[in-house]
Design brief:
Blueprint lengths: L3 H10 L21 H10 L14 E2 L11 H7 L10 H13 L4 E5 L2 H12 L5 E4 L4 H9 L3 E4 L20 H11 L7 E4 L12 H14 L3 E4 L3 H11 L8 H10 L3 E5 L10 E5 L2 H14 L10 H14 L2 H20 L12 E5 H4 L9 H13 L1 E2 L1 E3 L1 H4 L15 E5 L7 H16 L7 E5 L10 E4 L1
Parallel strand pairs: 1-10, 3-4, 5-6, 6-7
Antiparallel strand pairs: 2-8, 7-8, 9-12, 11-12, 13-14
Helix pairs in contact: 2-15, 3-12, 4-12, 5-6, 5-11, 9-10, 13-17, 15-17
């Protein structure tokens, strides 16, 4: 934190600020187009930030997926790509990294996280099975439903309240979980779908005590627990910071212990592992592994490359080791908090506690006069881009989709606009610019009108839907 706010604060408190544990070696120029050009770009994109061209964006906080900066070591690893079709040595580097840091026995590489979600869903879910989870994630739930599963949300009630300061809003509510098991029968539960840091709740973590209790409950009923490990490294940081007995444990040890209470995991390496493409699925059951290894050949590529170039597997293996370094995680989450704290100081409504990968603006708090069927979070993302060329994304009613029975929108309690911070990409000065832009949009909130949806795709509509101002 080199910013003047924190320096003067540091002097007053007699504390020492931390700094990013790296220096910048290569830069990519940024360019801001004019307001008139931004308005034209919004119009052409149907007011959907996913449909904007990257060159029309100034600061891109759409996602932290595949947008992080690789290290000099990862770039060096790219030169060590063994592009053999079968048995690439980079596969064995990746396998060893996953076994060392996550602790699972068997590894299947995939092109990205949703490739792994697809494989586990098809292999484990039978039509009509229930899949309880700690709040849905868009692609995860869709793959579970395509396989014939029925997702049931069993997250703690606090997760649905953006103002609750509960330390572990990602936790599974054990009573809700047991009620589903008793109602549907243990044999009809495919598995428990547990996500580390729950994205849709605002990047909120799961406690070690909770995963242990979930494991114990599932052992009683002989149910498997599979982990979405996409941002599990960030989850480990919150355990280290907030949970008794973990303060002095390194991130790597906390991560491995957490994974030990689960039967396997799927991973989008594009998040925690600091790469631009790649994912994996890892399990402990040799029979399930055999089936997955067979399936991956059909959908992704041979079981030793899973849709990835050798060089990408090598970069991911190196990224795994870098991702668990305590100073890296501290600076990563520190930057997210720096932005969130500026907004809290200005009394701008955001989800609290601040999560690990993003600051989530509470669009209902911004626009209480815009009804949810007029897409307040989508409106806020469009207004922020119009003001300053900053790209964020909607996590509200557009992301939630429709109820297949009634055809009406799902109306989630949380109507959020996500400012996702890529890892090792932006400086604190960028965060200041973002905060000031949000304040400008907040100050103009009363004049802002909502949107109507004019084009709706069949699946994951938020990616390609188009809107018009009302």
């Amino acid at each position: 934190m080199t910013h003047h706010h924190s320096q003067t604060m540091g002097q007053q408190l007699g504390r020492r600020s931390w700094a990013e544990p790296w220096k910048i070696k290569m830069v990519e120029p940024l360019h801001m187009i004019s307001r008139k050009e931004r308005e034209q770009a919004l119009l052409e994109a149907g007011y959907n930030t996913f449909l904007l061209r990257s060159e029309a964006v100034y600061i891109d906080l759409l996602t932290d997926s595949g947008t992080s900066a690789m290290s000099d070591r990862q770039w060096a690893g790219m030169m060590l790509g063994d592009e053999a079709y079968a048995g690439s040595r980079n596969y064995y580097s990746l396998e060893e990294a996953v076994q060392t840091y996550y602790g699972y026995s068997y590894l299947v590489p995939t092109h990205q996280g949703r490739g792994a979600e697809h494989l586990i869903s098809q292999a484990v879910i039978k039509p009509g099975n229930y899949v309880p989870g700690n709040m849905y994630f868009t692609t995860t739930r869709l793959h579970q439903e395509i396989a014939g599963g029925i997702f049931v949300d069993v997250i703690t009630d606090e997760a649905h309240d953006p103002t609750s300061l509960h330390a572990f809003k990602g936790n599974i509510d054990l009573d809700k979980l047991e009620a589903v098991i008793k109602r549907e029968g243990a044999d009809n539960i495919a598995y428990v779908s547990l996500a580390g840091t729950v994205n849709m709740a605002g990047g909120q973590p799961v406690s070690m005590a909770n995963v242990k209790a979930v494991r114990a409950l599932c052992d009683r009923y002989n149910i498997r627990v599979y982990l979405d490990a996409t941002r599990m490294v960030e989850n480990a940081f919150f355990i280290q910071e907030r949970e008794e007995g973990y303060t002095d444990k390194p991130i790597a040890a906390i991560l491995k212990e957490f994974c030990s209470y689960t039967d396997g995991a799927w991973m989008s390496g594009k998040k925690d592992h600091l790469v631009n493409i790649g994912g994996w699925l890892a399990v402990n059951d040799p029979e399930l592994f055999e089936e997955l290894r067979n399936m991956v050949v059909v959908y992704e590529g041979l079981h030793t490359y899973g849709g990835l170039a050798g060089r990408d597997m090598e970069a991911m293996a190196i990224g795994i080791a870098e991702s668990v370094q305590d100073d890296h995680v501290r600076s990563r989450i520190g930057q997210v908090r720096y932005l969130g704290d500026l907004l809290i100081d200005w009394e701008i409504p955001i989800v609290q506690p601040i999560g690990g990968h993003a600051v989530f603006l509470d669009a209902k708090g911004f626009y209480p006069h815009i009804p949810q069927n007029q897409f307040p979070a989508q409106t806020l993302a469009a207004e922020l881009y119009r003001d300053s060329g900053i790209r964020s994304m909607e996590r509200g009613v557009a992301s939630a989709g429709r109820d297949p029975k009634t055809g009406d929108h799902y109306y989630p309690a949380l109507e959020l606009t996500r400012l996702t911070i890529p890892r090792r990409v932006y400086t604190q000065a960028h965060m200041d610019v973002v905060a000031e832009a949000i304040k400008t949009v907040y100050d103009a909130r009363e004049e802002t009108q909502g949107l109507k949806m004019v084009y709706e795709p069949k699946y994951l509509r938020f990616f390609q839907a188009r809107f018009e101002p009302i």
